[in-house]
Queue: 3 jobs
Job 1
Amino acid sequence: MSSSVPYDPYVPPEEQEVPEEPQSKVAALRAEIDDTVGIMRDNINKVAERGERLTSIEDKADNLAVSAQGFKRGANRVRKQMWWKDLKMRLCLVLVVIILLVVIIVPIVVHFT
C-alpha cells in the first residue's frame, strides 16, 4: 500500500483507487467554478432584463388605466349629450303632433258650432 492513498477500512487494499493528480483536480474544480460563475452571471443579467421588462409593462398598464379613465369620462359626457338631444327631439315631436292636432281639430270644432 502506498503512502499517498488514504486508508479506508471498508475497502480492501487491492480495490482502492489511486487518486488523480492534485493539479488536474484543481483544474477541474476551477473549470467547474468558472462554468458556475458564468451561469450565475447569465442568470443575474436575465433577472435584470426581466425587471426592466416588468417596469416597462407596469408603466404601460398605468398609462392604459389613465386612458381608460379618460375614455370612461368621455363616454359618459357623450351619453349625457345624446340623452339631452333625444329628449329635445321627443319634445319637438310631441309639440309638432300637438300643433297638428290643434290645426286639424280647431277648424272642425269651429265649423260644427
Job 2
Amino acid sequence: MSVIQRDRASLWHPYAPASGTLPLWEVEDADGVTLRLRDETGQRHEVLDAMSSWWSVIHGYRNPVLDAAAKRQLATFSHVMFGGLTHEPAVELAERLVAMAPSAADRPRLERVFLADSGSVSVEVALKLAVQFQTASGFPKRQRFLSIRGGYHGDTFAAMGVCDPVDGMHSAFPGLLGANVFAARPPAAGAPPEEIAEWQAHTEALAQEHANELAAIIVEPVLQGAGGMFVYAAACLRILRDIADRHGILLVLDEIATGFGRTGELFAAQHAGVVPDIMCVGKALTGGYLTLAAMLCTGEVAARVSSGGAGALLHGPTFMGNPLACSVANASLGILDGGGWRSDVARIGSGLAAGLEAANAFDAVKDVRTIGAVGVIELNTEVDVAAVTSAAVGHGVWVRPFRTLVYAMPPYISTAEEIRRIAEGMVAAVAEVHGP
C-alpha cells in the first residue's frame, strides 16, 4: 500500500471528513521554499510552498541555522519537566521575547513569559490570566470577554468562545461556548474617518454596557487571519486600547499569526503604536520546526495574579518550555534579530501585489489585497478547495484555500522569482477553476 492509502485507512486530517474524500499528497522531501510531493497515482510534483506550512516556516525548510540548533540541543537533552526545573534555552527565549515585544515609554512593559504548547493553548492561558487578574483585583464577576466579529483565536474551548460566534468555524458548539460580547468587525484599512467614528461609538457603548462583567478585550491586531484575511484600520486598535484603560479591562492581543514580521512590522500592534497588557505568540516562533507558543504579560498583571487567592497562574502543560523547541526558537529569533526580514517582507509584498493584480479582472473575484508578506484573492463565492488546490499543484504552487479565499503567506526566504511564480500559479488556478 502507498503512504496515502495507509493514511486514508487510519488518519483524520484537519477540517476534513474521516472518509478522506479530499485530495492528498505525500511529502517526500522539503528544502528552502520547495516541497516535493507524490500524488495518489504515484506521480511526483515539485511545488513552491505559498503557505509556509500554515504561516510558520518563515525561514524555509531545512534551514541550516535551525537544523544546527536542534542538533546541538539533542546532544544534551531534548526534554525535562518545567515544574521546579529550568534550563538555559527557556531563559534565553524569555529574554529574547521580552526584548523584542512592543513597548512605549508611557506603558508598562511586557516582561513576564509563560511558555505553552500551541497558539490555542497560549490563548487559553491568556484568558485564564485575565479572569484571575480581575478576581485578584476585587472584581470576581468579570468573567466574560469583548471581541470583534471576524476573529479567530484557536480551536480549544475557551479560545473558540472568543472567535466569531456566527461566521466562525465553531457554531456547531453553541451550548459549550462562553457567552461573550462581540463588537462589529472594524472598518477596513483605508476606511473614512466617519466610518471609524461610527464603529468607535458602537464599540464604546457595548463596552460601557458590559464593563462590570468583562475581564478583557481580545483581538487579532490589524489582520484577522482564519476569520477572513481581513485587514482593518490600525486606528481601531488604539480605540480598543483606550476603551480597555477607561474601564479597567485588560487588552489581549493575539499575535499568533501576525507576529514576527508577517504584516511588515515585527508585531502587528506596532502599526498602531499600541502595547497590550497580554500578548500571545506562536506559529513562526520556532520557524515551523516544533510546536511552541508563549504568552507575555506586564509585570503588574503577573504580580497581581501571583498575590491573589490562588497564588499562582493555574496552568501547566506537560511539555511547557520544551528545551528542543526553545533552542530552535532562539535560533529563529536570532535570524530575525539580523533585521533582514524587513526587506524580505517588502520584497514578497510588492511581488504579490504585482502578481495577483491580474485576478482583479476576473468576474469571480471580489477583491485582491496584500499586507506585508500576505497576498489574498477573495472570490464572490466559496472556493472549490479540492479543485483549486489540485490546479495550483499543477502550476507548481502549494496553496490551501478556505471559504472564499485563495491566499499566500510564503517563507521570508522566497526570491522575487519564486514570488512571481507563486502569484502566477494562484491566478492561473483561480482562472482554471472559477473562470477568468
Job 3
Amino acid sequence: MRFEDGIALVSLESSCVMHFSRVENEAVADRKQPEPKIPVYLTPGSLLLISGEARYQWKHEINRKPGFQIWDGLEIVQKRRTSITLRRLCNSE
C-alpha cells in the first residue's frame, strides 16, 4: 500500500450529501438486493475522517445528478465545492 491508514477530508464552499456503501465481495454479489447507501450530510467546513473498516470496506461517492442530493426531504442545490484530502505516505524503506 502506498498510503497509511486514515484519510482526512475537509469539505468547503457548498453543502452536499456523500453516500457510503459496502464494497461488494462475492457473498454480497450473490444477493439479489443491493446494499443500502448511507447518506452523510457535509456542510462547508466539515471534517470527515475515514480509517479502518470505513476506508477499506466502504466506498463513498457524491452523485450530483438530480434526485441524489436529498437531505431531510429537501434537495440540496450543490454549487461549486472544494474538497481537501489529506493522506500520509508510507515510509519507502
